[in-house]
Design a protein that fits this description.
This protein has helices at about 140-145, 180-190, 210-220, 230-235, 240-255, 285-300, 315-320, 325-345, 355-360, 365-375, 405-415, 445-450, 460-465, 470-485, 490-495; strands at about 5, 10, 20, 30, 35, 45-50, 60, 65-70, 80, 85, 110-115, 125, 130-135, 160-165, 195-205, 225-230, 260-265, 270-275, 305, 380-385, 395-400, 420-425, 440, 455-460. By secondary structure, it is of the alpha/beta class. The N and C termini lie far apart (about 50 Å).
Length: about 500
């Protein structure tokens, strides 16, 4: 991206036929360096045509196709939903064409952070006790157990970050075989063994489809000092189960409190890349800056996880070009094809995005949104592709299949082993995700200033102050290291993260 800022507009590539408004622009304004005059007011983050685009021709941004003109567009016209729409086009996957050797940091040059090493060698960034449910029926009990440790309940255990209830609305009324059930089992297993939990209690009702014994048998799980399970029916009802749950959490706390942070290589960090409430600047500021941070983490031996498959739709050819081999690239295309079939059989379409807020922010089609979203993945090689909530073992830049809905996507990433999250937003999305810390990155300075208590970094300074994207990426990377070491993010300070656990529900609810 050879970005050129002309004061009032941003040209992202010399071959684009649109530029992006860097501020609200009135009608009759001359656009510097483009030789066009605006025909109508253009909101900040929206697009302006710099040359005539005939109906049926492609609209180009980032030197990529973002849609097709649905009417003749004159130079200076506002380009948006009234004259531009989704259009399918042939993609050249060019498998592995852009794969290049990664320039890794080694030895003492590798970045470090203060992490927690569990007995089995896995590394944590936080130290929680989790109260999880197999089914919606036990959600109230789990919440009541966790609530017993609020308001000073952990004062004697300063090294414990909290007791969090992770509840959900599924687990019954579902088939006990097939994709939907397999996904729920993978999620539960992934969280039960997540290193950010010093201990977990799993609570069911007793008669649900997602039986605890199914999970134990499937993954060879046994009760231990730090993993306990029970059912409300077996324990004696609501009150008895709450009391027993509180008792078992109390028994875990002394050991959980014994942890100490130690200096560790950044190779132990697994970064979940998320964006939500995007705007016209997401693909210009925060997302490429996060991509630069992801590149740094990969070069320091860590893992960066890109997800949200519907939000890389139309940009997947940029990722297949970076695949380390053709098989990896084809795994990604298989997930794209699965989504095309999945949305069709459910009466949907892949262009059900952008959301109303995205469109208000200047994004017109899913192609435009995807090109910006894919920038979070940086530039290093794509080393593997995983299904939703599959354990991620590879080091480097990977892709995990997921919906674009942020809580569902992050649930899968954390289940896969992610231990820190960076979340870019142009609209001010509210988000946290216990037991993993979440860092919020604002795409524009105006929103950052308005919601500064919620945002960790103003990536809008790429435009408002001319901060180079690599420099902003370094700021993000440094913040990742500090937060992974125990510094609270803004979302954590505000208490976010108890309500975002949302397993992906695939299949019929019966």
């Amino acid at each position: 991206m050879n970005q050129i800022i002309g004061g009032t507009t941003i040209r992202l590539h010399q071959d684009d036929n649109v530029v992006v408004a860097a501020q609200n622009i009135g009608a009759g304004a001359t656009i510097p360096g483009e030789g066009v005059v605006t025909a109508s007011p253009v909101p900040s983050g929206h697009k302006i045509a710099t040359r005539a685009i005939v109906a049926g021709d492609y609209v180009r941004k980032y030197n990529q196709i973002i849609g097709v003109a649905t009417a003749d567009i004159a130079p200076g016209d506002h380009v948006h939903v009234q004259n531009c729409a989704m259009s399918d086009f042939e993609r050249d996957y060019a498998f592995c064409a852009d794969a290049r050797p990664t320039q890794y940091f080694t030895g003492q040059d590798r970045a470090t952070f203060k992490g927690i090493v569990r007995e089995d060698g896995r590394v944590a960034t936080r130290n929680y006790i989790g109260v999880m449910t197999t089914v919606n029926c036990s959600a109230t009990v789990a919440k009541r157990v966790a609530a017993a440790f609020e308001n000073g309940g952990l004062d004697e255990y300063p090294n414990v970050d909290g007791v969090v209830a992770l509840v959900h609305g599924t687990g019954c009324g579902m088939a006990t075989k097939g994709e939907g059930f397999d996904v729920l089992q993978r999620i539960l297993w992934g969280f039960l063994r997540h290193p950010n939990f010093a201990g977990v209690i799993l609570i069911g009702l007793g008669c649900e489809a997602a039986q605890i014994r199914f999970l134990l048998e499937a993954y060879g799980i046994k009760a231990t000092e730090t993993f306990q399970y029970m059912t409300m029916q077996g324990t004696g009802g609501t009150r008895a189960t709450i009391e027993e749950g509180v008792k078992r959490v109390k028994a875990m706390l002394p050991k959980a409190n014994q942890v100490k942070r130690e200096t560790l290589s950044a190779e132990h960090l697994s970064l979940c890349l998320q964006c939500g409430g995007s705007d016209g600047y997401s693909g210009i500021t925060a997302n490429p800056a996060l991509g630069a941070a992801a590149d740094l983490l990969v070069r320091h031996g860590g893992t960066a996880i890109l997800s949200e498959t519907p939000e890389i739709y139309g940009a997947e050819h940029l990722l297949t070009r970076r695949a380390v081999d053709r098989k990896i690239g084809e795994k990604l295309i298989d997930r794209i094809k699965w989504w095309e079939e999945y949305t069709t059989r459910n009466g949907g379409e892949m262009n059900n995005n952008p959301s109303p807020g995205n469109k208000d922010g200047g994004l017109t089609t899913i192609l435009e949104k995807s090109l910006g979203a894919a920038a979070k993945g940086g530039t290093t090689n794509l080393v593997d592709v995983y299904k939703y909530a599959e354990p991620i073992s590879a080091k480097g830049f990977v892709f995990m299949d997921s919906p674009g809905y942020d809580p569902v996507s992050a649930t899968g990433q954390v289940a896969s082993g992610g231990n820190i999250i960076c979340f870019t937003t142009g609209r001010g999305s509210a988000f946290g995700f216990k037991p993993v810390p979440s860092i919020k990155l604002a795409t524009n300075t105006a929103m950052y200033q308005k919601l500064s208590e919620d945002m960790d970094i103003d990536c809008g300074e790429v435009l408002s102050k001319g901060v180079p994207v690599p420099e902003m990426g370094q700021r993000i990377f440094d913040t990742i290291l500090r937060v992974a070491s125990g510094e609270q993010s803004k979302s954590e300070e505000l208490g976010y993260g108890d309500n975002e656990f949302t397993p992906w529900q695939i299949g019929a609810t019966m």
